[in-house]
Inverse folding.
């Protein structure tokens, strides 16, 4: 009883300390420059692991709840201190959401060419109508999704690792530098990730015996992936990953049955998405919606650039339909890739390298925060080095986890690896953007947790085999 009372008091004190830090974070911003704060913020996030370790040592119940509170607190501090100035896609999401909420979004060619930019603002406009047009609404929705992601990382990681390690994995994913940055801005990636993780978590809990319950679960998985696809048009990758894994393992009925039970609800969600986009854009869904992304992905950098944008503006000025414009860029993109020949391999490798580069967070913060000079000189280099101290071990253990997990755990890691492979192929072939990598981070984190466990087990085995016992 005395131990329980101490745990409760420790937890209560921790919560009040966290609330105090959040309240006075504005004062911190006044005292220090943005750049100095960001360096301190990295150190602060590392200290959160110590808090979780203490909670585990004193056997605090529901440690994962503490982890979720720490993640939210960390993001709240970042939101209050780093004043973000939206531009580009982030500003577009914000503006379209507010326009739809006020009924001022008018159909146009741009929306017809890129219908995938409509669903997220359409969803957010419902909240803006109720709560008003405030930036904090976008942040709050992102945080709710992150809480769900952190919890599901914990649940999925427990299939590989002990509960203690699963708590650390969940925290590592939640305070990931890229996750922390993109939570601050309007984007569809975080909500998309939430629904994909819900789908995979539910799929892994489908009973092996064919029953009404298993059918209901499988259909629900299809709807969850369809909901994810509403926010980002890459949900089909998850459907394919689940079907391939069912073909390999055949643990839950035939692949044909899985295909039907997944694809029908997914198709229903896709139909609804198309109708919403059509009503707001004034154009029927384009057939080759990936044309422009393929074209930009085949450019030298694989990202948006001024020369391609100039050609896009020229095509739009020639009174072409969205289908004609997307088809034009699809053909041009294929032509570019064909011309690369063997050089396509270093092109793809370069895009993989930049996917989770610390430079993404540096570039984003440097461009979109007031008073930051992170894109300039020595400050930028030091911050990149600081972020690398997080990313290097993260991916090192993730790669080890990939190797050991497949050998030991069968279908579960295969689903993760097939899904990640599909995402990586999409990233290197189509237009690449740093924010897309947020969707992959939880899966890398789960594998990193298993890699850390595998390394520890191997060390113990080698120690017992080769070192003499005292």
């Amino acid at each position: 009883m005395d131990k329980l009372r101490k745990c409760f008091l420790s937890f209560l004190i921790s919560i009040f300390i966290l609330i105090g830090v959040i309240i006075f974070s504005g004062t911190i911003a006044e005292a220090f420059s943005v750049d100095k704060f960001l360096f301190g913020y990295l150190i602060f996030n590392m200290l959160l692991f110590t808090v979780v370790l203490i909670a585990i040592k004193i056997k605090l119940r529901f440690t994962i709840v503490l982890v979720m509170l720490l993640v939210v607190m960390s993001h709240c501090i970042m939101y209050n201190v780093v004043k973000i100035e939206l531009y580009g896609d982030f500003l577009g999401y914000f503006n379209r959401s507010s326009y739809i909420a006020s009924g001022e979004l008018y159909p146009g060619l741009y929306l017809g060419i890129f219908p995938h930019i409509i669903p997220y603002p359409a969803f957010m406009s419902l909240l803006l109508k109720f709560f008003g047009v405030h930036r904090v609404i976008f942040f709050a929705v992102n945080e709710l999704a992150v809480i769900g992601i952190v919890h599901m990382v914990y649940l999925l990681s427990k299939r590989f690792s002990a509960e203690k390690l699963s708590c650390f994995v969940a925290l590592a994913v939640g305070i990931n530098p890229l996750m922390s940055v993109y939570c601050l801005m309007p984007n569809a990636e975080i909500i998309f990730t939430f629904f994909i993780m819900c789908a995979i978590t539910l799929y892994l809990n489908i009973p092996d015996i064919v029953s009404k319950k298993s059918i209901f679960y499988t259909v629900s998985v299809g709807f969850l992936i369809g909901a994810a696809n509403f926010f980002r048009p890459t949900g089909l990758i998850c459907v394919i990953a689940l079907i391939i894994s069912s073909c390999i393992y055949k643990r839950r009925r035939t692949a044909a049955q899985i295909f039907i039970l997944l694809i029908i609800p997914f198709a229903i969600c896709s139909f609804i998405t198309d109708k919403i986009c059509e009503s707001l854009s004034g154009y029927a869904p384009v057939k080759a919606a990936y044309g422009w992304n393929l074209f930009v992905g085949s450019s030298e950098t694989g990202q948006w650039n001024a020369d391609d944008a100039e050609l896009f503006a020229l095509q739009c000025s020639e009174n072409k339909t969205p289908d004609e414009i997307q088809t034009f860029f699809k053909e041009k993109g294929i032509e570019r890739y064909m011309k690369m020949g063997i050089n396509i391999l270093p092109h793809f490798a370069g895009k993989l390298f930049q996917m989770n580069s610390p430079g993404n967070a540096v570039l984003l913060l440097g461009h979109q925060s007031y008073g930051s000079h992170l894109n300039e000189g020595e400050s930028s280099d030091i911050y990149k080095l600081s972020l690398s101290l997080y990313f290097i071990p993260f991916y090192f253990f993730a790669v080890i986890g990939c190797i050991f997990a497949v050998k030991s755990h069968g279908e579960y890691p295969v689903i993760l690896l097939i899904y990640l492979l599909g995402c990586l192929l999409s990233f290197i072939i189509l237009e690449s953007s740093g924010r897309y990598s947020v969707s992959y981070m939880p899966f890398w984190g789960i594998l990193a947790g298993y890699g850390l466990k595998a390394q520890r087990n191997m060390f113990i085995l080698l120690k017992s085999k080769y070192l003499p016992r005292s």
Observations:
- The longest helix spans residues 377-409.
- Residues 16-33, 367-379 have pLDDT under 50 and may be disordered.
- The chain is about 75% helix and 0% strand.
- The two ends are 39 Å apart (CA to CA).
